[in-house]
Every structure is written in structure tokens, then in C-alpha cells.
Fold each of these.
Amino acid sequence: MVSVAMGSFMHDVDVETKKATFAMGCFWEPDVLFGSYKGVIRTRVGYTGGTKKNPTYKSLGDHTEAIDVDYDPVAVKFEELLDVFWNNHDPSARMTRQYSSFIYYHDDDQKKSAESSLQERKAKGCVLTQIVPASEFYEAEGYHQKYRLQQHPWLVEAIGLVRNDQNSLVRSHVAARLNGYVFGRGGKEALEADIVRLGLNDEIAKYVRQYYVKFEGRGLVC
Ligand code: MHO
């Protein structure tokens, strides 16, 4: 087991969070979108919704690739996260179970908001998205967590993490944010604000800006 010094950088954030869980195709993309979104503290990608115990990427059974988001409900409303969900995949596409569209609600309020957003969306066309209660979430393998960040070994090391180390990559707030920024998501203003808020040094800031610009505006990837 790799042990990681989590003391420096803003890996841990001590605010009360709520969970939101979505499936919207390959989970790498939602990881960059939500990780760099306003009010999001942590993300993890994994498999959920099925019956198979301990699924893996290679042996998924009846599970679906999903993202589990810890958000600060004071900073962002669940309804905004629903907008990110609807606006960043095609809910009318007929997909295999692995890549199907689901909203997994955690309480009655989320269920109601999800249902009303579904009705609005249906007024615009076909929607295959299903709204179901959240069930056991199995974290994906280390190499899937913060996948875009992990394409930058220098940066992973610079923020004190270790590639493929599932636990620290899942837990780290700064990893969630940078995973989006290095893939051109999250917005330039949010990036600049986070450079200050997260206390990133000049070398790291320069590196992240460079990749933000490189990938900004690019389409989906997986
Ligand atoms: N195109 C990717 C999909 C990965 S996603 C996590 C691959 O070939 O592995 O399903």
C-alpha cells in the first residue's frame, strides 16, 4: 500500500457535503466536468446500479459507469449539477448498460428535482435516462480515478500524490479540481481563483494554465 503525505496542498477540505451520483457514459468525462465545477469538493468514479458484488472494469456484470460527487450544498444546488448532467451527454442515445444514462438519487428532494428536470427535458425530445435510488457504489481501479490528471505524472507528483493510488486520488480536493483544469474544463476564472485558493505555486500554476488552454473547447474523449 502506497502511503501518501496528504499534509500540504489542499487535499482535505472540512466542509459538510452532500452526494450526487450520475451515469452519463464513460466516467472519465464527468470526472473532469464535475471535479472542476463550482462547489464540488471530491469526486470518485466507479460502478453502481447492478447486482454483481465487487465489479471491476473488466468484469462489470450489470453495473454502469458512474460518478459520485461530494458537493458543498451552500455553494452549489443539486439542480445546477442536474444541468451539468443533462447538458453534457446525449440522454436519447441507446447505450449498453455500461454506458447508460442514470440519475441515482440520495433523498426525496433529489428525487423530486431529478423527476422535474426529466419532464422538462422530455418536452424537448426522447430521453432514456432512468431515475433510481442510489445503491452501493464500487470505486473503480486507481488508474481510472482522476484519469486526465494522471496523464501528467509531473503534476501528480508536484501535488504530493502517487499515480494509481486509488485512495488518495479519490479523497483529494486539489486532484478533483486539477483533473478538470488540465483538460480545459471548469472555466478560466475558476482556474485563476483556485490557483490562489488552493495555494498553487507559480510552477504548478503555469503548467496547469498551459494545458487548460490546450484542451479548452475540445469535445468529448472517451
Ligand atoms: N475508450 C476507453 C473507455 C474507457 S471508459 C472508462 C477505453 O477504451 O478504455 O469506459
Amino acid sequence: MASKMHPETAVIHAGRLREPQGSLVSPIYQSATFVFDDVQTGSARFAGEQSGPIYTRLGNPTVAEFERRMAHLEGADGAVGFASGMAAVSAVLLGLLSSGDHLICNTCLYGCTHSLVSEQLPRFGIEVTQVDFADLEAVRAAIRPSTKMLLLESPVNPHLAVYDLAAVAALAREAQLVSVVDNTFMTPLLQRPKSLGIDIVLHSATKYLNGHGDVIAGVVCADGDTLELLRHRSLKDIGGVLSPHDAWLILRGMKTLALRMERHCLNAQTLAEFLESHPAVTRVYYPGLESHPGHHLLGSQMGAAGGVLALELDADFEQAVAFVNRLKLFSIAVSLGDAESLVQHPASMTHATYQVEDRHRAGIGDTLIRLSAGLENVADLLADLRQALAPLSQSSTLEEAL
Ligand code: 3LM
């Protein structure tokens, strides 16, 4: 039954266990520890000879339901929940790489992933090269005998560059490297990297998976022995454990994931088309636009273009800031994938961790603005953008007239 479920059904049903009291909604196992019938039972569980919960850092039934659901959706053997998206990213990097290993990752990554790879990993003797994954020959050229892993996001935070994941997976396989994709912007409903040959898929569940802006969480989907390494080295010993209550909130949020993604994508597409045609906007970054270099991967790699877009205005820094400050319905806040539309300035917010030269090399301009299209009626969002852009288009019309 499970493998035949459509994704829209799987977000509601996959990995559910029949609850002994018959409750439709799975209970929250809000307990730090679990009672053993006798010493032999406890010892057998610790030795891995008997299944069953021990202690929530080592596993929890509510968290396990979320993990089974995500594994099913991503097509992985299993999944491990973490306390944040960054705990998931660091679990993969610190759990699977050792001193002397070399990592190749994209030049543009979420800001804290960038600081983790560029500032923290070298402290542990892990070497890192950042390359633009649009140029796979450059990625190939960066491979050394000590290279172990490739890491990228697609679409990338914050400017939505898209990479050919099947080609990345093929390169990784050929060079016997582990490929890792952060699939946060897509969710498994829009993109399933494992079906393209990628080894490990991770998410910040804080975003679309939960979808309601009230939880910080992460998850890694992987196969075979990797799962055990992540549980043992990263979860048990480093300890960034997902709380059962937060796992339960994500399970609740995920029931509407398919419906929400549909509306996020529709709203983002409408906003992107409007902005692209506006005289005060010089560039819109959204894979759903034909002008986007990764547009051809829509339909094959990506089921839809997602709910995040970015733009550049025909304006200087102060004017760009004033535009953002004029928005009323878009809240000025980092994060994405919430019901509320959000706007933020990557150079000073999500990607402020970058050195200026590295940020420019990553393609993140000083005046880039990122939008997360929420679930509102798009007419209201358009009206908000229109009023905030109006002073800019008036000044450009004036300049044209002069
Ligand atoms: C943001 N991003 O606004 P958490 N991977 C990706 C992400 O976008 C993020 C993480 C991992 C944002 C958060 S910035 C202070 C706010 C692609 C987070 C990390 O640890 O759950 O926040 O996920 O772009």
C-alpha cells in the first residue's frame, strides 16, 4: 500500500502506525525517557538486540513517525530528525567527514551553511573548496584524492540558481563521492533528488514542511549504513535532537503541504511575472520564468518552481531599502515557506555571514531582495508590491522624460 501512495496521500498517511486507543491523530509522546519492564529489557534495548524506545535523544515514537514520512516521500531507506536545519546540515558534515577529508560545495549556499563550511569545518581539519556548480568541469577539476563529498542547494538560497542534479549525481558516482542536496526550497513534492541519483537529501523543516512559522527543525534522508552513522555520531553524541512536540507540529503541518505548495507556487509565479514586466525592476530571479537559466529543468527535475523569488531594482541601496520598508503585507523577516509573505535583504540578513568578496562571487548583490510568497490572495500581494514600487517607477519615468 505505502509504495503506491501518491505524494498528496503520503504527506498525510505515510509512516503512520495504528494507535492502540484508535485516535485518528497520532499522540505526542512527550517523554524524555521510557520505562523498561526489567533490567534485561533495558540492556537488550541498549545493545540493539530488542527494538523499542529508550530515551528521546536516542529515538522517540513521534519523531520516528515524522522520520518515516520523510523517508517515504524522499524515497530513502530512512530519515533522522534534528533540532534545526543547521543541525541537519552539520550532522551530515561532522558525522560523515573526518580530519583530512575534502568537501566541495557550491559558491552560493544559505549563509549559515556557508559559515559552517568556510569557518567551522577547517577548525576540525576538513578542507573545503567552493565552486560554482553551474560549471561541472570546474567541480571535476576541484576533486582531489581526499575529496569525499559534494554539497549543494538547488534552487539556491537566495538567488534561486538551479543545477542539473542528475549530472551532479553522475559525477559523484563516477568519482566515488557522496552527493548531498539541501532540498529545503522544493520539498519532496516538487523535487526528489534521490530519484536523480543523489545520495543524501536534507531539509530545514522550519520552512515549507512545517509551513506555519512556529517550529525550528531539520531532517536528513539517507540509506543503509549512513543512517546508523547519523544516528550514532551526530544525533546521539552531538545531540541536536528534535523535540516530540515540534515533530508533531510538523506532522500536522505536512497534511496540507500539497495544497500549500500549489498556492505558494501559483502566487510566486504571478508575482515574478508582474515584477518582470515592471519598469522599476531590472531583474527577477525565479525558475518559473522563461528568462531563468534553469527554466529548462522545470518539469523534469522540478515539478514546479517553488514559492521563493528574488529581484533587483533599478535603484541604489537607499532606494531599495526604502522600497522594502514601504511594503505593508510582506513582513520584513528572514525564513520562508510560511503562510505570511516575507521579504528580506540577503546581503545584510540571511547571507550577512559572507565576506563581501565571497558574497559577490556567490552572485548575491548588495541590493538583491528576496521574497517568500505566502498563501494570501495574490491580488493583495500585487497591490502591496505596486504601491511600494510606485515612487521608483515615477522617478524612472521622470528620468526618461528628461
Ligand atoms: C532563511 N534559512 O531565511 P534552520 N538550509 C537552507 C535554509 O534556507 C536554511 C537552513 C538550511 C533561513 C533562515 S536566516 C537567520 C533564517 C536552504 C535556513 C537552516 O536551522 O532550520 O534555520 O535551517 O533563508
